[in-house]
């Protein structure tokens, strides 16, 4: 439409869904639910972190809420899900992971390097294990981004394929079409769960990387 | 004897009427400014008066006559600030009517989501119209 891509609308729209609560004792139901959810998320994220980690509260909580909203909105018909684009997920994962790494290296360099070697490894295994741990460290941003992309894209793709199949089968073999629709129902429930879980996993892993390093 | 007032028409009564009839008890139904029964004419500004003259550009859309419509449109504020103000007013109207209420329901946010679906469909229509007669999607 007018040459503007749909991703712009789908990125800006979630801002409309979260009104800032007014200056009242009892807010509207929407505000109450959102505040409760925000409180739950912040509490869960901030408990394992130390005092320095609390500076990341706004970043992690808003990331979680944004991913949750974008993933769930993508399940509506004809909408666009920005998190299916690898570019966007890498743009989210890479700088945040790098920030956790650099924070650790800057503030506690020896401790963050010591994470490369788990405790109690037998001595001959040490060189191999350091290589393995370094690889696993360097692959974390890639894994974060690709995990989110792949899960969402695969879910959307499955829904599209199975719904096309059931629509195409309906005039020919209605019984099979009904079976397929049952599969579609289960898949949709799975998709809703996956949408929420993926957001959670993303932020959880980030906070984990943060705990080690801050 | 004029019949007693029902509900809370008390604020608009002239002092003579207030002296004649005892003030009404606490209303058992939500008070409205208009009386429930016809009362003798008293000088109050009801909807039978002629509309107050207002400059054209400030009139509400529903009050503008059809012939005045192009002039009214031309005189509206189309600066970025004006458009922003109009969007803000529309948003506040919707928000205060459907969402910012004590017992708001599912409908308030469902309308927003339905509008989002419709706008997404319109936005991607040029891409979707090729799917109509396609054999393999």
Notes on the protein architecture:
With 214 residues, chain A is an all-alpha fold. Chain A has one domain (6-18, 26-213). Chain A contains 8 helices and no strands. Chain A has helices at residues 6-12, 29-46, 57-73, 86-107, 109-114, 126-138, 140-169, 174-213. In chain A, helix 3 (57-73) runs antiparallel to helix 8 (174-213), helix 4 (86-107) packs antiparallel against helix 7 and helix 7 (140-169) packs antiparallel against helix 8. Chain A is globular, with a radius of gyration of 22 Å. With 137 residues, chain B is mainly α. Chain B is extended, with a radius of gyration of 26 Å. Chain B starts with 14 loop residues before the first helix and ends in a 9-residue tail after the last helix. Chain A: InterPro entries: ATP_synth_F0_asu (IPR000568), ATP_synth_F0_asu_AS (IPR023011), ATP_synth_F0_asu_bact/mt (IPR045083), F0_ATP_A_sf (IPR035908). Chain A: Keywords: ATP synthesis, CF(0), Hydrogen ion transport, Ion transport, Membrane, Mitochondrion, Mitochondrion inner membrane, Signal, Transmembrane, Transmembrane helix, Transport. Chain A: It is a multi-pass membrane protein.
